[in-house]
Amino acid sequence: MKKIIYLLILSIIACTTSEKYVMTEGEVDVDYLFNSPNTSWFQKNYESYIVDEVIQNEDFSKLNEYNIEIFMNTKCHDSEREVPRFLKILNTLNFSNENLRIVLLNSEKKTIDGLEIGKDITNTPTIIFLKNSNEENRIVEFPFENLENDIFRIINDIGYKNVYFSE
């Protein structure tokens, strides 16, 4: 009887764990990106990216004043390219995952829970930099210069405008 209960508990845990990795929209964590069958491209793209040395030459300490939201689609080639790079940069800078929110959008750039409402998401990925809960800036679809320099300009308020910015 104990064996049956043990096996039952193990199968329940296995089912709930695998469900975590198959969702296609909603809030996920970095672990999802590394382990989901929906993001089989993530690890290779993360490992192959070489972080620009500007990281070592400039002061990125202000990054820790921000919360960052990433809105992405797992089938978007821009998300496949930019999100692993962006997260590798954040890891290199020791940015806390507690200050990071990752939201998977469907092909219509929406979630069932409406997590995108009020965020004006037109392209994926959209990476929003928030300070004191207010949006300070965003990177949309791809960087203007490169991710490292774009991040540096955003966190140091050096006149950054994303590639789709228009007044």
Descriptive overview:
There is one protein chain. The protein is an alpha+beta fold and 167 residues long. It has a single domain (24-155), classed as Glutaredoxin (3-Layer(aba) Sandwich). It is built from six helices and five strands; from the N terminus they run αβαααβαβββα. The protein has a five-stranded mixed sheet with strand order 1-3-2-4-5. Helix 3 packs across helix 5. The longest helix has 21 residues, at 2-22. The protein is globular. Mean pLDDT is 90; it is low at 6-10 and 12-17.
Could you give the topology of this structure?
Blueprint: H1 2-22, E1 26-28, H2 30-35, H3 42-48, H4 54-57, E2 67-72, H5 77-92, E3 100-104, E4 126-131, E5 134-140, H6 147-155
Parallel strand pairs: 2-3
Antiparallel strand pairs: 1-3, 2-4, 4-5
Helix pairs in contact: 3-5
